[in-house]
């Protein structure tokens, strides 16, 4: 049995960044850019009005007051056809190109029409450049607007669109297949018969994968039958990561490790000093240059949940090129005394007693099969291995859920 930190180190050694690929920018939120993206044009592409009003020659308003002749109206999407001369103005809308001759825009609120042809303006401080965004002042053509390695958010998708990119080279989201194993499992839509329970781990893992930045693929349930496991595991090995739930401890029907060995999946570790989650299995298969990481998570739902958050989330992040993909760690204060027994470091569910003060109370929890109690959990307290009695008010490290 290895320590949690040794397990992290082994995962870090084997989880390599996926090759980059060209894909839709809209499908690339949270992905790392794998190219420098340059602007294909100036932005704005022309000197642009930033207010609805009149394009004027600033010198005409040196005294703060003027009556000017209106020579045309320029709306956004159209181009000016005339040059604005002294004592002239062009009606202009926000976003429209500034006409030749004009060097300032006066907002409409400071103007008054005089008949159909003239406008009276009372505005002080109208200097050249007023209410004009100069051509290329946001972006110049050819300049790198997003560097390789940048993590894409919605705002970067907007910038990509501005420079004409709907496809972009990124490190893709890891594809993560999920296979739940066990004869006792029935689908979520079924009422379990005698000796049966619903497959809660499968949907939970699919949701966890999506939340951790992977693309989940559910392979449903495989019964503890060698042929069925073999076929479904073979399919799962086409993904970047295969997550198996159940069958990794020592039960008579725990066929998973031997089926994996048959399929040339090499074991890297089995069992970690951790509660819940001790029987976790980790391995790797490389065939024709394609590597699949395989996690066998313990069947108990809370063990599955915890192992995913500690180990699988980490691997998804590494494949996606991210260095930080872990749950947030925090130092909290125990709101109630707690007795820890056992030789494994324990992650114990707790809820905020007072989130602002960072005080947390351990939950009443029946162990790794008690998923329902976890609904009240905000965090997992990290108790070190060994018997110890903790007093209320003691500091303890925790992971935020
Ligand atoms: N002799 C030993 N027995 C056990 C050991 C051990 O070291 N030696 N470890 C215990 C620990 S710790 C855990 S955790 C469990 C893990 O067992 P498996 O990974 O082999 O899982 P199963 O036996 O298949 O199932 C355990 C438990 O979880 C339920 N389960 C399984 N899959 C699902 C699912 N998809 N959704 C909901 N619940 C699921 C299953 O019905 C069992 O109740 O082993 C201990 N035993
Ligand atoms: O480690 Mo098991 O996951 O305690 O129940």
From TrEMBL:
The keyword Nucleus does not apply. It is an enzyme of class 2 (transferase). It comes from the Bacteria. It catalyses: adenylyl-molybdopterin + molybdate = Mo-molybdopterin + AMP + H(+). The keyword tRNA processing does not apply. Its EC number is 2.10.1.1. Keywords: Magnesium, Metal-binding, Molybdenum, Molybdenum cofactor biosynthesis, Transferase. GO terms for molecular function: metal ion binding; molybdopterin molybdotransferase activity. Pfam families: MoCF_biosynth (PF00994), MoeA_C (PF03454), MoeA_N (PF03453). Pathway: Cofactor biosynthesis; molybdopterin biosynthesis. One of its GO terms (biological process) is Mo-molybdopterin cofactor biosynthetic process. Belongs to the MoeA family. This is Molybdopterin molybdenumtransferase. The lineage of its organism: Bacteria, Pseudomonadati, Planctomycetota, Planctomycetia, Pirellulales.
């Amino acid at each position: 049995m290895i320590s949690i930190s040794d397990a992290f180190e082994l995962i870090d050694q084997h989880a390599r960044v996926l090759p980059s690929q060209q894909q839709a920018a809209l499908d690339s939120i949270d992905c790392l850019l794998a190219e420098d993206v340059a602007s294909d044009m100036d932005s704005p592409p022309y000197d642009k009005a930033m207010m609805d009003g009149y394009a004027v020659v600033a010198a005409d308003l040196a005294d703060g007051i003027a009556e000017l002749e209106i020579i045309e109206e320029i709306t956004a999407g159209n181009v000016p056809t005339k040059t604005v001369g002294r004592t002239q103005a062009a009606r202009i809308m926000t976003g429209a190109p500034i006409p030749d001759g004009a060097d300032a825009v006066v907002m409409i609120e400071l103007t008054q029409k005089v008949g159909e042809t003239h406008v009276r303006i009372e505005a002080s401080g109208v200097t050249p450049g007023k209410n004009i965004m100069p051509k290329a002042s946001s972006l110049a053509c050819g300049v790198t607007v997003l560097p390789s390695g940048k993590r894409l958010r919605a705002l970067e998708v907007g910038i990509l669109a501005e420079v004409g990119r709907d496809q972009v080279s990124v490190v893709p989201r890891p594809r993560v297949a999920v296979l739940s194993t066990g004869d006792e499992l029935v689908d979520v839509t079924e009422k379990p018969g005698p000796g049966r329970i619903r497959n809660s781990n499968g949907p939970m893992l699919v949701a966890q994968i999506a939340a951790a930045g992977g693309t989940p693929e559910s392979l449903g349930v495989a019964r503890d039958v060698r042929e069925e496991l073999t076929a479904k595991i073979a399919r799962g090995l086409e993904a970047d990561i295969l997550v198996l739930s159940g069958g990794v401890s020592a039960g008579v029907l725990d066929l998973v490790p031997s089926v994996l060995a048959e399929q040339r999946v090499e074991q890297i570790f089995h069992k970690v000093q951790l509660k819940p989650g001790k029987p976790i299995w980790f391995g790797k298969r490389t065939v024709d240059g394609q590597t699949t990481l395989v996690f066998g998570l313990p069947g108990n739902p809370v063990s599955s949940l915890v192992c995913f958050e500690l180990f699988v989330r980490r691997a998804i992040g590494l494949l996606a090129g991210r260095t930080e993909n872990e749950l947030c760690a925090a130092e909290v204060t125990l709101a109630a005394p707690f007795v820890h027994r056992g030789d494994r470091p324990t992650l114990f569910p707790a809820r905020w007693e007072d989130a602002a003060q960072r005080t947390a109370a351990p939950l009443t929890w029946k162990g790794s099969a008690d998923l329902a109690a976890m609904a009240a959990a905000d965090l997992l307290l990290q108790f070190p291995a060994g018997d110890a009695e903790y007093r209320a008010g003691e500091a303890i490290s925790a992971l935020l859920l």
